[in-house]
Design goal:
By secondary structure, this protein is of the alpha+beta class. It has three domains: 73 residues, no CATH class; 68 residues, no CATH class; 151 residues, Glucose Permease (Domain IIA) (Distorted Sandwich), CATH 2.70.70.10. It is built from nine helices and 20 strands. Strands 8, 11, 13, 14, 15, 17, 19 and 20 form an eight-stranded antiparallel beta sheet that branches. Strands 3, 5, 6 and 7 form a four-stranded antiparallel beta sheet that branches. Strands 2-1-4 form a three-stranded antiparallel beta sheet. A hairpin with a 4-residue loop joins strand 13 and strand 14. The protein is rod-shaped and about 190 Å long. About 7% of the residues have low confidence. The chain binds zinc ion (ZN). The site of zinc ion has 5 residues, from loops.
């Protein structure tokens, strides 16, 4: 009996021991699994954090096929764009800056080092298109100057017209991608001076050796050749007169033309322009002159001083008539030895032609 009891107890004991051993084995396994899972999570987190630190989410920007760069966001791209536009506008405020196609924005993860290395300014600058409006000034159909603003162009066109009225000056705007060579104010000044000096209408006549070399030609109404009296000349100059024409364009001055003497001052104008008496006097000749003067008027102003008006198309005063300074005496023409409409204006002291330009030079 006791033996049986002992056997049962020791059997139970053995079973319990086995059970306890079994349970502790399960706990050990569970603990192992737990630690492995925790370790895996830790490894994953650290890898994830490392990746997130190196690779940043960015906006990848392209324009058409051209890659521009990675930006933190769209606003950062706009900032770069506006900076580059301002850069262009600093040179010329009238510039129109644009992109040929809209930029495309795509999310992209890239390494920090790549963001630091990129040249977004250079890349975007290369894609910016510009359109400038420039203003060309053409003189007699030839492009002479180019300005940034219409104000500057118009100002120079106006100053040219004021200096030389016969010039044809045009201002035309032009759209260009690049401004090229723009005329500066300083350079425009020198160009204007050059154009004006080449087109100036009044030339100062050459007066050297005039009286000494003079040999008079035979003309109707000429008195005997008497030496020029300085006193008479000075008196006539002191009394003064007016320009016999409204034109101030001297086409040929008094003086030697090669081997022949030009005895008057030629003032060019249009056919039919009025010719005025230089000053008060009496008409001593009015009519045709066969030796080259064509229709000629001679006015005697007294004291040995007379004025001659040649090549007229029509005469409206007669010999013996008294005329007032500024009175119209004839119409401009090209009669006699003449190649174009002009007045051949002569001044004579005691019948000898002297430089008539001296008698009008002081007057407007
Ligand atoms: Zn002449």
């Amino acid at each position: 009996m006791f033996n049986l009891c002992y056997n049962i107890i020791s059997d139970l004991k053995g079973r319990c021991k086995f059970l306890i051993w079994k349970i502790s084995g399960v706990i050990k396994t569970l603990r192992f699994i737990f630690f492995v899972v925790v370790l895996l999570v830790l490894i994953f987190c650290s890898v994830f954090i490392t990746i997130m630190n190196v690779y940043k989410p960015t906006v990848k920007v392209s324009i058409g096929e051209k890659f521009i760069g990675y930006f933190a966001n769209k606003q950062q791209f706009d900032e770069v764009y506006n900076t580059l536009v301002a850069e262009k506008e600093q040179i010329n405020t009238d510039v129109k800056v644009y992109l040929e196609s809209d930029p495309t924005f795509a999310t992209s993860y890239v390494r920090d080092s790549l963001i630091a290395d990129q040249n977004v300014y250079t890349n975007l600058r290369a894609e910016l298109k510009t359109e400038y409006t420039i203003y060309n000034v053409a003189v007699n159909g030839q492009k002479a100057m180019t300005f940034n603003t219409s104000d500057e162009a118009n100002k120079y066109a106006a100053s040219l017209k004021t200096e030389v009225a016969k010039l044809n000056v045009d201002v035309t705007p032009e759209k260009v991608a690049e401004t090229g060579e723009i005329t500066t104010i300083e350079r425009a000044d020198s160009i204007v001076r050059d154009i004006v000096s080449r087109n100036k209408e009044v030339v100062t006549p050459n007066t050297k050796n005039v009286i000494k070399k003079y040999t008079p030609t035979k003309t109707v109404g000429t008195t005997a050749n008497v030496a020029v009296s300085a006193e008479v000349a000075n008196n006539a100059l002191a009394q003064g007169g007016i320009w016999p024409t409204s034109s101030r364009y001297i086409s040929s001055p008094f003086g030697w033309r090669g081997s022949s003497m030009h005895t008057g001052t030629d003032i060019a104008g249009k056919s039919g322009d009025p010719i005025y008496a230089y000053k008060d006097g009496v008409v001593t000749f009015s009519g045709w002159n066969a030796s080259g003067y064509g229709y000629l008027v001679i006015i005697n102003h007294g004291n040995g001083f007379s004025t001659w008006y040649a090549h007229n198309s029509k005469i409206i005063v007669s010999a013996g008539e008294t005329v007032k300074q500024g009175q119209q005496i004839s119409y401009m023409g090209t009669t006699g030895y003449s190649t174009g409409n002009h007045l051949h204006f002569e001044t004579r002291i005691n019948g000898t032609p002297v430089n008539s330009y001296n008698y009008i030079a002081a007057y407007k």
